[in-house]
Amino acid sequence: xxxxxxxxxxxxxxxxxxxxxxxxxxxxxxxxxxxxxxxxxxxxxxxxxxxxxxxxxxxxxxxxxxxxx
Length: 69
Description:
Helices cover about 40% and strands about 40% of the residues. It is of the alpha+beta class and about 70 residues long.
């Protein structure tokens, strides 16, 4: 591995370590509370639109990207 490849790999690892990505599942009210809390701490980077779980399940799921620092 060349010096340039090592530097690029290290930069990519550091960039990836800055964020946590997750799916959260729950009632729309519960998700709203979680998203509001993440937003108030300044860690919320991205939140997807709500998606219904399907069938007769009334829960929703949302994708979140949060800063780790």
